[in-house]
Design brief:
Distance between the termini: 37 Å
Helix content: 25-40%
Oligomer: single chain
Largest sheet: 8 strands, mixed
């Protein structure tokens, strides 16, 4: 992965290394993210099973991931950890013995969590177990049957229309047995016990945007943060959707009060503009920081209110927890035609989009780490900035005026009650500019950090 070590002296927030992800060599980072997506793409994942374990094994070569196994039958609130599903092979053969549908060509061909079956069926019976997308006849759909026993195949609608009226041999060599739910967790201890939670789902098979993109981005982000001195502690979760977050919450309720910020990442490899979905609270610090970062990016974006549908944010934000967890996406789920189809393949995600998503995530973390409160040490009137050389430390005329303005805002509002984010929002200046102004003022003895 990308070497994020830096010779830059530590700033007061000790996050200089994040600059490599925010402003680094995008094509290098993008290619490495894309390579990880390609590594994971062939694996048949589900909410349980060896595909998830193989995925986490690969991630362990990048970060020191702790793998948890939660036994079948474990109660997790109103849910129960299901039996473990694994699959070895599956096919449909015509009456000449030819494989016309082959799991080895695409693991999307099998209804995920299909029970084992091997028998001859008529065309009419077979059609009862076939899933297609008529509006996209050249694509294989992704379908599941996690909590209702069934078997089935997903095929192109064009192929369905071409099936002859004959008998077919169907075989799904799978198992549904007592086992475990598997998830990965990586905890990075910071100066404080307060935590930042970052979560993505690992249950989808060969789908690149949903959600190998987020797995790759969070893996590199975790790798980078693991090398840095950090103010907050960080907890990364690589979990199966819904049942995974419920399982983690049920096993870790005592940790929830420590989580001050949270972000679910999903679908961040496509070309669409960024979309941030607010937490249930709507005004949590993570909501404000994410909005500030996206506004400062200078690119199109959308901020949407919380709704109880989507990804694992709906579990973290359930009323019994109401955690400050938002969701970062590009094009929202279900809003692009490739969603949950074979078209969500390595051609659909691009290295440059992955790199940009990592940059946005790093900027959000940078905002979390750098947002703090200060006290003006010369609060009676404005301190003389010129004799301290502060005017001479800035660049061109427009840049100088902007930074002078930022310093004045920071000095005026730094009474121990306003954070840098508050000052950025009130002044209308980018958080980055405000934070840099605070660094200068702190270095010259004009500010001190406010005790919290």
């Amino acid at each position: 992965m990308y070497d994020t070590r830096s010779n830059t002296p530590n700033t007061p927030d000790s996050t200089a290394g994040l600059a490599h992800l925010m402003h680094g060599v995008a094509d290098v980072v993008g290619q490495q993210l894309y390579h990880l997506v390609e590594q994971l793409y062939p694996l048949c994942r589900s909410i349980t099973g060896n595909g998830v374990r193989q995925t986490l094994d690969i991630l362990q070569s990048y970060i020191p991931l702790t793998v948890h196994e939660v036994p079948t039958g474990t109660k997790v609130f109103d849910w129960t950890v299901p039996r473990e599903w694994n699959i070895r092979d599956a096919y449909i053969k015509n009456d000449r013995g030819e494989r016309i549908v082959d799991f080895r060509q695409s693991n999307l061909h099998v209804l995920n969590y299909s029970v084992p079956i091997h028998k001859k069926v008529s065309l009419n019976e077979l059609k009862e177990h076939l899933f297609t997308i008529p509006e996209h006849p050249d694509r294989i759909p992704y379908r599941t049957s996690y909590y209702k026993e069934n078997w089935g195949f997903c095929i192109r609608h064009d192929q369905l229309r071409s099936l002859a009226d004959e008998d077919y041999e169907v075989c799904i060599d799978s198992s549904l047995e007592e086992g475990a739910l598997t998830y990965g967790e990586y905890f990075i201890k910071g100066e404080r016990a307060e935590e930042v939670l970052l979560s993505c789902h690992t249950c989808h098979p060969s789908l690149c945007n949903d959600n190998l993109s987020a797995i790759a981005v969070l893996t590199l982000l975790a790798q980078t943060l693991g090398r840095l001195p950090l103010r907050y502690s960080y907890r990364f979760l690589f979990i199966p959707g819904t049942i995974g977050s419920l399982t983690w919450l049920a096993r870790n309720e005592e940790k929830v009060p420590n989580i001050r910020f949270g972000l679910v990442a999903a679908g961040i490899g496509d070309a669409g503009p960024f979309t941030y979905k607010k937490s249930r609270r709507g005004d949590a610090a993570i909501d404000r920081i994410a909005a500030n970062v996206l506004k400062s990016s200078g690119k199109p974006y959308a901020i949407v209110d919380f709704s109880p549908v989507g990804y694992d944010e709906r579990q973290y934000c359930s009323p019994g927890f109401n955690m400050p967890v938002g969701c970062l996406m590009r094009t929202p789920h279900g809003c692009y035609p490739e969603y949950h189809t074979s078209a969500d393949n390595p051609d659909f995600v691009r290295p440059e989009h992955l790199a940009e998503s990592l940059s946005i995530c790093a900027a959000i973390i940078n905002g979390i780490e750098r947002n703090r409160k200060y006290i003006n040490r010369n609060p009676k009137g404005e301190p003389q900035l010129g004799r301290r050389g502060l005017y001479d430390m800035v660049g061109g005329r427009s840049d100088r005026r902007l930074r002078e303005l930022a310093m004045l805002w920071v000095l005026n509002l730094s009474d121990g009650t306003a954070s840098l984010l508050d000052i950025s929002e009130r002044s209308g200046l980018d958080f980055k500019v405000i934070a840099e102004a605070a660094d200068l003022l702190l270095t010259h003895g004009l500010l001190r950090e406010s005790p919290e």
